[in-house]
Amino acid sequence: MDFQLINNYLRGEASESEVAEIFQWIDADPENRKEFTAYKKIWALTAKGDENEAQLWRDMAPGLRKKQKTHFLQIFKYAAIFLVVFGAGMAIQYAGFGVKKNELVYQKSTTIAAPLGQMTNVELPDGTMVMLNSGSSITYSGNYSLGQRQVTLNGEAYFDVVKDRKRPFLVQTSLLSFKVYGTSFNIEAYPDEKKVCATLVEGSLGVINKSNKEICLLTPGENVYFDALSSHISVNKVNTELYTSWKIGLITFRNEKLKDIARKIERWYNVKIVINNQKLGEQAYFGTIMKNKPVDQILDVLKLTSSLKYKIITRSDKPTLIYWN
């Protein structure tokens, strides 16, 4: 197989006949499928150009066929990101969906995730840098490298977007979208919390609602907060460090309820918190904690200014259980 064809396919540039040739080769031998999967992961990690891709394949292909450890395995071992590469699938769609009968449609996308208890640094194909907070993920489709700079965010991330006036960068969340051209900003949008909070550090940030209408344009130092339950949206001048310091392990709580802080601690430490006293959950907390400290030390800090009492139960096969009383 000419792996330049695979490069073209992963960029979304392959013709229909080339795509058919690739999938015939994949289906012909299970070993071919393994080689394709491995190469696809290498492409996702580099996504820079033909020279890097070709050289990496030359480094790792012989060992793949001999089932030996190769250079690419070391790349995966020490990679700082957790990749879930999926798609590259094949579907046959018919008329009625704007596709002619028997026309092949190939869809692929890449999801990069930060597992619970960890943070992840990501470089997107255009050089845009993203830091994902615990329990967060971004997804981008195969046409990203063709200039369609669009990602979907679930959770919290800090973006440092490469400037490109001709190709804006779009971040979609479950509630709002954000349009930029070259900007540094933080977005917190965990779907289960039904709210979105975005803070602009540099540049400009357009805020777009579900009707695809730009409802406001942030300037540096501004924060937008949207509560889906009340449909309330507010824009305020803030100290951006309070919203971005999680990148260096510092978390500042601003009159936040303990029940909301509990959800964050669950993500940071991959634990399960059970609040037995509902009044405790409604208590507000002000202060700064160091995220890289053990969870019991974090709880001891919370105890200093609240009525919190806790019990930790370690479980071997499940996340640690913490009771708040």
Summarize the structure.
This protein is 29% helix and 37% strand.
Work out the number of β strands. Answer: 19
Strand content: 35-45%
Oligomer: single chain
Summarize the main sheet: 14 strands, mixed
Overall residue-averaged pLDDT value: 79
CATH topology of the largest domain, anyone?
A: Jelly Rolls
User: From the coordinates shown, what is the CATH architecture of the largest domain?
Assistant: Sandwich
Unreliably modeled segments: 46-53, 64-107
Q: What letter string, H or E per element, gives the SSE order?
A: HHHHHEEEEEEEEEEEEEEHEHEHEHEE
Shape: globular
Alpha-beta content class: alpha+beta
Per CATH, the class of the largest domain reads: Mainly Beta
* Count of individual domains: 3
Instruction: For the record, give the distance between the C-alpha atoms at the N and C termini, rounded to a whole number.
Output: 63 Å
Q: Into which percent range does the helicity of residues fall?
A: 25-40%
Radius of gyration: 23 Å
Q: If helices are DSSP runs of H or I spanning 4 or more residues, what is the number of helices?
A: 9
